Amino acid sequence: MVIGAVAGAVVGLISHTMAKGTRDFSSVGALEADHLEVLAEPGDAEQARHLLSQL
Q1: Which residue from 11, 25, 33, 55 has the highest number of Cβ atoms inside 10 Å of its Cβ?
Q2: Above 80 in pLDDT, residue 15?
Q3: Contacts of 52 by beta carbon, 8 Å cutoff, 6+ apart
């Protein structure tokens, strides 16, 4: 188990050094949808339209 921990630390150190400390992802402040799709039963469609129009 100790050998695995040491090997993992060595691999992590090597990969961190090769990447020069930069991360391979970028963070975003917010996520916003391009469009929305709403499904409603036929009997509820009119009420759904009304509720969505108020947004």
Answers
A1: 11
A2: yes
A3: 38
Task: List the beta strands (DSSP E) in 1-55.
Answer: none
Which residue type sits at 50?
H
Dump pLDDT digits (tens) for 30-52: 888 898 888 989 999 999 889 98
Q: What is the DSSP letter of 5?
A: H
Cα dihedral 13, 17, 22, 23 sign: negative
Residue 48 CB: number of other CB atoms within 10 A? 13
CA distance readout (Å), 7 to 3, 14, 39, 49: 6, 11, 52, 59
Token pair 């949808």 is at which residue?
Answer: 33
